[in-house]
Amino acid sequence: MYAVNFLLLSAALFSIGVFGVIARKNAVMVLMSIELILNSVNLNLIAFALINNDIGGHIFALFVIAIAAAEVGVGLAMVLMIYRNRRSIALDELSEMHG
Amino acid sequence: MSSLLVAADVNVAQNVGFYIIAAIMLFAAFSVVTTKNVVHAALWLVVVLGGVAAQYILAAAEFVAVSQVMVYIGAVMVLFLFGIMLTRASIGPDTDVNNKGWGIGIPVAVVFFGVLAWSVIDAFEDTVLVDPTEASIAASTQAISDGYLGDYLIPLIALSFVLLAAAVGAIVLARKD
After folding, report:
1. Of all residues in chain A, what percent are helix, strand and coil, respectively (each to 5)?
2. Are the CB atoms for A32 and B41 separated by under 8 Å?
3. Could you tell me which of B17, B112, B109, B125 has the C-alpha nearest to residue A21?
4. Is A3-92 a CATH 1.10.287.3510 domain?
5. What pTM value is reported for the model?
6. Chain B residue closest to A9 (CA)?
7. Any idea where the domains of chain A sit in the sequence?
8. Complex-level ipTM
């Protein structure tokens, strides 16, 4: 099995996630696209662990999983707060900081 | 580039499994970013995360695969569904889920994938993965724990503080006061 298989799959997942972050208006959907991106990074780390026969990739993948869980928790709490204050989570309407 | 992406004589079953799972994953990921229904996007995301866990198994990372299933499919998806439930009144498809300038995302993603694919193929064109042995798979969990309690102990402690801060921060943010 070639190493490029994993790496190309992860590149495709990353690109789809980047498209989602740019295109989506709903804040929860943007968070889902960020999850796609983080998973593609994890896939890359596991593939590199297999290429180099080193366990460090697994350890960093587990770090990324933990950070992603924390990020989703804080992100969704922020989304809930924005929804409570504005009754909407459309990202293009959040323009108070626009100078 | 001669035999690139062709089922090599290394391990045919692994290759076939990889391509089937990869096709499902790519279709599901595409659905996540194109569907108009937020709940459907979350459910397609479950398919992607399960596919990633299956790829971890193929890549001989059992511990990470189980962690992926428990943390992502178990916990993060419940969080997402709660977030959807608490921020939306209706469950049906939305009319406008995309930004006004969403079309710019297509060329950005295509160029991004092109650059990534070019550099990945350029760097790892001929790298063939060695099949891990039973002994190395069995020892990998022990190696992970040795790493966490050895070389990576300080990052592990820092990460636990990050998780604590994130939990407290999420409670403070979401609390009604």
Report:
1. 80, 5, 15
2. yes
3. B109
4. yes
5. 0.89
6. B22
7. 3-92
8. 0.91
